[in-house]
Amino acid sequence: MVYSLLFIGIGFIGMEISGAVIHKYLMHGVFWNIHKTHHMRQTGIFEKNDLFSLFFGGIAILLIVVGMDGYDFRFWTGWGMSLYGISYFLLHDLLIHRRMKLFKGPQSGYLAAMIRAHRAHHAHNQKHNAVSFGLFIVPFRFLKAKKRR
Ligand SMILES: [Zn+2]
Ligand SMILES: [Zn+2]
């Protein structure tokens, strides 16, 4: 039980950290031509950028399959990654970008800060000088809620 939770956590947190690094140095680097389809917000259901989700999802499925006999660490890490992928889809694609209009945006708290941070990432939609590359890792300045009257 502890063992499985440990590796689910490693898969989940590993995706956030490696995802932020890959986003900053590769997606806003050599893979900009693919990733920019997310920043340009063309119409249509799919973006070329969705290839990254397929790529990470493929690795997660592969880990689950190869770790299936004996439910070893690869199996649980794959599930942690999958859980991250599902959370990312719900928060980033549905809540923040509203690819399907299901949720109303929260007005305060951590989720609102997450949305502000990701909006700042999209603020100028350029390859260079973007901020806030993670999703759950919200830079401190976005956590301070704006005072409302
Ligand atoms: Zn980006
Ligand atoms: Zn986005």
From TrEMBL:
Pfam families given in the database record: FA_hydroxylase (PF04116)
Domain of life, per lineage = Bacteria
Span-the-membrane segments of this chain are: 6-27, 48-67, 73-91
Keywords tagged on the record: Carotenoid biosynthesis, Membrane, Oxidoreductase, Transmembrane, Transmembrane helix
Under InterPro entries, the record lists: BETA-OHASE-like (IPR045019), Fatty_acid_hydroxylase (IPR006694)
Q: Which positions fall inside the Fatty acid hydroxylase domain?
A: 10-135
Which PANTHER family does this UniProt record tie to the protein? BETA-CAROTENE 3-HYDROXYLASE 1, CHLOROPLASTIC
Similarity comment: Belongs to the sterol desaturase family.
Protein name per the record: Sterol desaturase family protein
What organism is recorded for this protein? Answer: Negadavirga shengliensis
